[in-house]
Amino acid sequence: MNEEIEKQDIEKAREKLEALKKQKASSESKTQEFSGEARERKEDKRNVQGIAYIHSTYNNTIIHITDLAGNTIAQISGGKTTKHSRLKATPTVAMFAAKRAAEMAKEAGITSLFIRIKSKAGSATAGPGAHAAVKSLAREGLKILNILETTAIPRGGPKPKGGRRGRRV
Questions:
Q1: CA–CA separation, 131 vs 136, rounded Å?
Q2: I need a labelling partner for 85 at 20 to 30 A (CA). Which of 8, 41, 102, 165 fits?
Q3: The whole model's pTM is what?
Q4: pLDDT per residue as tens digits for the range 41-63
Q5: C-alpha dist (Å) from residue 7 to 3, 14, 18, 40
C-alpha cells in the first residue's frame, strides 16, 4: 500500500514538473515575441523623417532637404550639377541634383520625406524639373510621405504703375 501511494506521489510530481516546464517554455516564447516587438519598435524609431523643398522655375531647380527642425542636410541646385546655364532647368539635371541630395540625406540617416514643391508666384505650373526630382528621390529609396504644392498665389499684387487715374495719353 505504501508503495502504491509513493508511485502516485511520484506520478503527481512528474505531472507538476511537466506542467512547470510547459509554462516556462510558453513564457520564454512570450518574451521572445515581446523582444521581437521591441525590435520592430526600435526599427520604427530609426525611421527618420525630413522635408524636401523643391523650388522649380523655368530657369533652375533647387532641392533643399532639411530635418523636421529645419536644419539643412542637403542643398543642391541645377547650377551646381551642370556647367551649362541653359540646362539648369531641364528634368535630366533636376534628376541628377535630386540623386545627389538623396545620397546626402541617406548619409544623414533620413529614410522618409515630406515634399513641398514651389514655383514662381503666379505661374500656372511648376517648372520642368519638379516632377523629375520627385521621381528621382523616390527611386533612390527614400519613402515619400506627402507631396504638397506651396506656390504662392498673388491676391491683388502690387500697386499698378500710373497713379490713381491711370496713364493719360
A1: 9
A2: 102
A3: 0.67
A4: 555 457 899 999 999 999 999 99
A5: 6, 11, 16, 49
